[in-house]
Specification:
This protein is globular. It has helices at residues 2-5, 104-107, 147-152, 156-161, 178-189, 191-197, 199-202, 222-227, 230-235, 253-265, and strands spanning 26-34, 39-45, 57-63, 75-81, 90-96, 115-123, 136-142, 164-171, 205-211, 245-251, 279-283. Helices cover 24% and strands 28% of the residues. It is α/β, with parallel strands linked by helices. The chain folds into 2 domains: 2-123, Translation factors (Elongation Factor Tu (Ef-tu), domain 3); 128-283, Nucleotide-binding domain of ferredoxin-NADP reductase (FNR) module (Rossmann fold). A 6-stranded antiparallel β-sheet has the order 4-3-6-1-2-5. A 5-stranded parallel β-sheet has the order 9-8-7-10-11, with helices on both faces. Strand 10, helix 10 (253-265) and strand 11 form a beta-alpha-beta unit. The longest helix is centred in the last third of the chain and has 13 residues, at 253-265. It is built from 10 helices and 11 strands. Bound molecules: flavin-adenine dinucleotide. Residues 57, 78-81, 94-96, 98, 101-105, 143-144, 147, 282-287 line the site of flavin-adenine dinucleotide.
């Protein structure tokens, strides 16, 4: 699991980010791993009372800067998919670094031992409850949109419910695929995961990474590869159909809109927690 790779310890003489001990929702960072100048992942302690369904998101953040007039600090919170599965005793997050982003310009500097704020109210549509039973499950992710699927891919229920599980992950550059590639490798090689998911279930998992800018073995937007049939040809699949296929989508608003149109052209209908159907969508970010 990625957890094993994240062994960086906070040097004793390093100044930790401002702790937030007065907040009941403070959690301690246990590991941080940087992938590129735009991407990192981290793990934090899990509140004993926090129950969530794999695929859901929570609000996390840090204390904002003091108000110049009053000196008061307010929490600066953003939505984050929980990337770890529901059975894990810690919480993992996979994050963008927006250089002038109010939260991530600061969050990217967290170190083990620092504290973050976590509001323990998980919600979201990328959950098994929002899908009708089917034979094949597709996860369509771009960028940090792989985070909810990093949770669901480590969830035994995913493999119990479906005969085949296909994850497509599209990024601009090859290095941006690293988190997902290592996740898939760990699912296939980690003894604990293999035991939890079941060796025979692991054979159901198929991984389809693509890049849009940097040269890689498979180039192209997933929408193009779906519409021109390349994806199906590469995977040896006839196509997507509502009696077989279920899908979860997590990307930019533009990607989500395009994929909704494509999935509906195959006859799939959008589901929700209260009304499970063939596919569900969630924004990886706003804007
Ligand atoms: C339901 C939901 C789940 C989310 N889950 C995650 C997650 O798991 N990991 C994560 O990194 N972010 C996630 N986000 C985005 C997150 O809430 C913040 O926008 C992000 O952390 C940046 O915060 P910021 O304050 O630094 O900048 P913001 O002011 O929030 O964003 C500034 C700009 O940066 C861009 N941006 C923001 N987030 C991303 C991103 N993830 N990828 C590419 N560009 C982005 C957008 O153009 C945005 O307008 C999620 C958002 C939603 C709505």
């Amino acid at each position: 699991m990625p957890r094993k790779d994240m062994t960086e310890q906070n040097p004793v003489n390093q100044v930790a980010a401002k702790p937030v001990p007065t907040l009941p929702d403070a959690q301690t960072v246990t590991a941080v791993r940087h992938y590129t100048d735009r991407l990192f992942s981290f793990r934090v302690t899990r509140p004993a009372s926090l129950r969530f369904r794999s695929g859901e998101f929570v609000m996390i953040g840090l204390m904002g800067d003091p108000d110049p007039k009053t000196g008061k600090q307010k929490p600066l919170l953003r939505a984050y998919s929980i990337a770890s599965p529901a059975w894990d005793d810690e919480l993992e997050f996979y994050s963008i670094k927006v250089q002038d982003g109010p939260l991530t310009s600061k969050l990217q500097h967290i170190q083990p031992g620092d504290q973050i704020i976590l509001r323990p109210k998980p919600v979201g549509t990328l959950v098994h409850d929002a899908l009708l039973p089917g034979k094949r499950l597709w996860f369509f992710a771009t960028g940090t949109g792989i985070a909810p699927f990093a949770s669901l891919l480590r969830e035994p229920e995913t493999y119990e419910r479906f005969d085949e599980v296909i994850i497509t992950h599209t990024t601009r550059d090859v290095a941006e695929l690293t988190y997902g590639r290592e996740l898939i490798e760990s699912i296939r090689s980690d003894e604990l995961l293999a035991e939890l998911i079941g060796e025979e279930n692991l054979a159901k998992l198929r991984y389809y990474p693509t890049t849009t800018r940097e040269q890689s073995p498979k180039m192209g937007r997933i929408t193009t590869l779906l519409e021109d049939g390349t994806l199906f040809e590469d995977l040896g699949i006839d196509g997507i159909a509502p009696d077989i296929d279920r899908a979860m989508v997590c990307g930019s608003i533009g990607l989500n809109t395009d994929l909704k149109r494509i999935l509906e052209s195959f006859g799939l209908q959008e589901g929700a927690n209260s009304d499970p159907k063939h596919y569900v969508v969630e924004k990886a970010f706003v804007g």
